[in-house]
Design a protein that fits this description.
The chain is α/β, with parallel strands linked by helices. It contains 8 helices and 9 strands. Strands 2-1-3-6-7 form a 5-stranded mixed beta sheet, sandwiched between helices. It has a 4-stranded antiparallel beta sheet with strand order 4-5-9-8.
Length: 211
């Protein structure tokens, strides 16, 4: 993922991804959209810690996320998927969903810094190179994680994750629009060739391009 910036001015950006990384991501999303079977359900899982789900604002956050996603997307979360009869099994869920939205703990009100525990970090890592993964930033909406600054936190021995949303994030970003198209219904007819070129991974969007 993206290394921490060395200059505070580097934080004043529209995206922490390079233009090449953004283009690769958008192309991969376009191929995923082209590979979608008409009529197939689109499922998006919202990953949130128990304390987040217990927050009085949770229902509002979930409603905002649902509103920002394509109308046809089915929004799932821990309490709607896992029950006493169906305990937590991320590997099974990961294989059945089409995208992931992560909701972290905001550093403070108005901050663009979000922290995630070890479970959310592993959920994110399992899908980041395969499917659309978005951060829900409370004041900025949905942001593809590729556009965020990421840092692994190792205090306490258990790796956790910090994401920083870009200060000048634009909701019209090509990466977001491509991710939303990949989470929408199939767009008309697709050829067999278009379906077969859909990647099983996103061509390593976080890899730093050669200089």
């Amino acid at each position: 993922m993206h290394a921490p910036p060395t200059d505070s001015q580097d934080l004043d950006v529209e995206s922490f991804a390079t233009p090449l990384q953004q283009r690769r991501f958008a192309t991969a999303m376009q191929r995923l959209a082209a590979s979608r079977t008409p009529g197939a359900p689109v499922r998006v899982y919202v990953s949130a810690a128990p304390r987040t789900v217990d927050n009085p604002k949770w229902d509002n956050w979930l409603a905002q996320i649902t509103q920002d996603l394509p109308d046809s997307a089915e929004v799932l979360h821990y309490r709607s998927v896992f029950t006493d009869d169906q305990p937590y099994d991320w590997d099974t869920v990961a294989g059945e969903i089409d995208g992931l939205v992560v909701v972290g703990k905001q550093k403070r009100a108005g901050s663009r810094v979000y922290r995630f525990g070890p479970v959310a970090r592993l959920e994110l890592r399992s899908l980041i190179a395969q499917k659309p993964v978005l951060l829900y930033a409370h004041s900025q909406g949905l942001i593809p994680v590729i556009d965020c600054q990421s840092q692994v936190l190792t205090q306490g021995g258990t790796p956790r994750l910090k994401l920083i949303a870009p200060k000048r994030w634009n909701q019209e970003s090509a990466t977001l629009q491509a991710a939303l198209r990949a989470l929408g219904p199939a767009q008309g007819e697709t050829t067999e060739e278009e379906r077969t070129v859909a990647p099983r991974h996103l061509a390593h969007p976080f890899v730093t391009p050669p200089r």
